[in-house]
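A reminder from the course coordinator: this example appears on the midterm review sheet, so study it carefully.

Given structure:
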């Protein structure tokens, strides 16, 4: 399943862009190619909780995050891909990753692939300058010369998709980013972005959407299939349902308030959790590994959160095996479809 980036990728030819999703058993050695430019593990670590008060972050938690980072730097983990955003902790997540990247350099360790995002608030009206200024801020906080994957965080920009695409293309041409993606884009928006970037000779690398056993909408709507058709990798955020699919929470012990994605009462999830628990025991893995393996089996790259080394080790247990077709079908039967939103989640 290993693949390497190509120097020249014919836009619109997904086969030339490389392998964008796992077609067999995900392993620590598996690598996927995004935008013909970066080679990533079949799972990423989402770092919203690194520095953001929404997740109760406090500065004294940095040591746990640093230990988590160190755990994942071990080659046996197989993970070389981290996702952040300028809005996470108002830049603090990027600052934290910048400190950790500096530590890698000092210790002579390889640098992982880093993805971040531009939040296109409607008042960010002037393109490409609004995007380029934000991009340079992310570069400074991360302490890098170039961003591996730069994404539009959501379809909330008042300017057209084509205007935003031109700004992304400018970032590529200036050598500030290696590849570009979008997040929360609908099928139509993603197709327009793909076509607009193609005019610049750039392959749209990814579309990041909420996808899990609690939100199958990107699959049932046809978005995942369309992404694959165009050579666009699907990054699945909140694959653990903001903790609801880890086995940590129950109807008697619900997750903290404020975890708005897939915000279903735990009482409604009992049938799903029962099936997950049985499958997890069969494969001798934690329930979180079942949730992550499911998203991989559906052709996506999950972004599993981890705030301590144990959570990181549990995520990695999604590697080395694959749900059977029968198990996937059984999970489909108890999973939730979810929906899209008017403002933020179009995909």
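Designed residues:
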């Amino acid at each position: 399943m290993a693949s390497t980036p190509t120097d020249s990728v014919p836009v619109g030819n997904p086969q030339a862009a490389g392998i964008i999703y796992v077609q067999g058993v995900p392993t620590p050695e598996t690598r996927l190619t995004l935008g013909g430019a970066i080679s990533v593990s079949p799972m990423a670590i989402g770092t919203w909780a690194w520095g953001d008060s929404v997740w109760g972050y406090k500065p004294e938690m940095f040591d746990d995050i640093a230990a988590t980072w160190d755990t994942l730097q071990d080659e046996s983990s197989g993970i070389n891909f981290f996702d952040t955003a300028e809005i996470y902790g108002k830049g603090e997540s990027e600052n934290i990753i910048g400190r950790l990247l500096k530590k890698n350099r000092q210790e002579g360790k390889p640098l992982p692939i880093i993805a971040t995002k531009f939040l296109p608030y409607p008042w960010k009206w002037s393109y490409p300058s609004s995007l380029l200024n934000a991009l340079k801020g992310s570069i400074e906080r991360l302490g890098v010369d170039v961003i591996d994957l730069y994404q539009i965080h959501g379809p909330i920009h008042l300017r057209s998709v084509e205007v935003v695409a031109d700004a992304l293309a400018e970032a590529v041409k200036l050598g500030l980013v290696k590849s570009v993606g979008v997040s929360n884009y609908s099928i139509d928006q993603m197709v327009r972005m793909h076509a607009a970037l193609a005019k610049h000779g750039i392959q749209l690398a990814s579309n990041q959407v909420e996808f899990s056993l609690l939100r199958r909408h990107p699959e049932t709507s046809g978005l995942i299939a369309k992404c694959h058709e165009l050579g666009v990798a699907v990054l699945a955020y909140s694959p653990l349902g903001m903790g609801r699919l880890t086995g940590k929470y129950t109807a008697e012990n619900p997750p903290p308030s404020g975890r708005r994605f897939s915000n279903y009462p735990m009482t409604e999830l009992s049938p799903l959790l029962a099936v997950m628990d049985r499958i997890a025991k069969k494969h001798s893995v934690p329930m979180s590994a079942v949730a992550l393996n499911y998203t991989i089996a559906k052709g996506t790259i999950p972004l599993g959160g981890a705030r301590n080394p144990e959570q990181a080790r549990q995520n990695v247990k999604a590697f080395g095996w694959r749900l059977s077709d029968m198990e996937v079908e059984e999970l489909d039967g108890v999973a939730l479809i979810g929906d899209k939103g008017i403002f933020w989640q179009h995909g």
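Residues 1-10 have pLDDT under 50 and may be disordered. The beta strands are 32-34, 38-40, 44-46, 81-83, 113-118, 147-152, 177-183, 206-210, 233-237, 301-305.
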